[in-house]
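Lab notebook, bench 4. The sequencing result for the construct came back, and we need a structural model before the next group meeting so we can plan mutations. Quick request posted to the team channel:

Model the 3D structure of this chain.
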Amino acid sequence: MSFWEALKISASGLTAQRTRLDVISNNIANAQTTRTAEGGPYKRQDVVFTSSDSDSFQSKLMSSMNNENDDVNGGVRVSSIITDDSEGSRVYDPTNPDADKDGYVLYPNVDLTVEMTNMLSATRSYEANLAVVDAVKNMATKALDIAR
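Done. Here's the predicted structure in token form:
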């Protein structure tokens, strides 16, 4: 695997985790939004990742064990952003303008504990990809120093 391929794989991870952080931030920002343009409360969203290449892990492992030098297309990408259609909490608040005829307001299905845990996971994954970029940069620098 070349330096460029390793950087490409890490860059795809950085991009994917940045998208995940953006979606999590949007969920947190809309945790109290009871009315949207579509009608009803905000529905939380989640990011779905998939491999950037079409080859399976097993085929990649076998080709690397056989020292086959095929192109590395690794990495990750965001395949979709899905909406969680589960129900949010119902709170009795007859003074709220979004209350139904019985005085209940339907709040978004955003759990701040879950969102903060997901944000911590995404941040750690982002930092891990940055560490890989830094390691590749250091290896490339050392290789250039040896060549001098």
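The longest strand covers residues 76-83.
Will bring this to the meeting.
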